[in-house]
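Lecture notes, unit on protein representations.

Consider one protein chain, 218 amino acids long.
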Amino acid sequence: MKGKAVVILSGGMDSTTLLYDVKSKGYDIHAISFDYRQKHSKELGTAMQTCIKLKIPWKKFDLSVLNEVAPSALTRDDWEVPEGHYEEENMKQTVVPCRNLVMLSLASAYAVGIKAKYLFYGAHRGDHAVYPDCRQEFIKLLSKTILHADWHEVQLKAPYSGMDKGDIAIRGKELGVDYSLTWTCYRGKEKACGKCGACQERLEAFKKAEMDDPIEYE
């Protein structure tokens, strides 16, 4: 056993692959998810199901205050989730200001509380252009802050920060990740829309990995 680790699990492809990956390396894992009243809250259910399947302890924390203080197309009912690729300017509407900063701060406090040595999250290269708190510069600076935030040191790890979603899908294929227990679409309906930036990137990732996406699309 490599030690106790906290993994932030959204229920999407990246964090679910990371959970399998960290588990395969022999860490004592504790998974956590955040409910910030996101439109795609369906992802929280898939996170729970994955943890049940892998027999990993899971906690969900209420972060609904983000809905109030951080306006975004992902949190406000009166904002439409934009269609298009992540490279398009309108995808910045899906940024939830400082979301990862807040989540990682709370996750590091939880890690300190259970005396975990490591904190993992699934930021990847494809996120960098549109989400400021997924950039490697952000990870580097925050990792130093978290390390010095308490007498109990916690190391922040983002092993996918140099990979794109297709690379992550390839890794998931090697690990045997059950992607039917993941959710990516930002619209959060019964079936994935296939048109939002998250869906488009997911479909591109499965194509790169030469896999069939097991979820249903409209």
